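Can anyone check this?
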Amino acid sequence: MVSHVVSPWECLQRLRGKLIVSCQASEGEPLCSPEHIKALALSALNGGAGGLRLEGEDNIRVLREATQLPIVGLIKSAHVKESERLHKVYITSTFEEALAVARAGADIIALDATNRPRPEPVTLQDFIARIKNELGKPVWADVSTLSEGHAALAAGADVVSTTMYGYTAETRAPADKGPDMQLLANLCNQLTVPVILEGRVWHPEEVSQAFELGAFAVVVGSAITRPQLITKRFTQACPQEG
């Protein structure tokens, strides 16, 4: 196993100005296995990515053995159906999931910090405090609005990300809508913790713009690691039969 001696908080600082690549595949997709996620992630690192965002214990564990670069880890709850995700928290929603992510080797724990119902009767502040106190890991808060960003900061989050914009009932947006740069700008201007642009980033110029607005780092996922979605963007430009 690769020696891992850099503290999680140092790992967080190593992400400043970097591209973080999210390597994920949903159940039933051809790439949904640790060996495939590992290949995608290592390819992204070869391309210059400064860190990884990974879902699932097995995926985190296999990459922890392969790299010392920062890993942002999460678990998507199997108890929340796809059809319910606009209305329910599903990203690292329990302490048990956070514990599993930490044990697998993640440096930073990502969680859903939106104002939607949570499965455990605990406040966001208490949830974050327990992760930081018991697991010794920085907390990365995925939000969808400016008010949620402020609430995450008040609750003790170490990082705030625009991840959930467009994926809650309040902010729901078409799949082809790009990132909310105004939300990013507002978060960068008003919060005192690192702010990350994540979600709906498809073009290099959006990455450049994010850093100009003050982003600490940028996460890109589908545009790099979801071949079926990348292919679909091209097939939709072809003449349609019938």
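Reply from J.R.: I decoded it. The first helix runs from residue 8 to 14.
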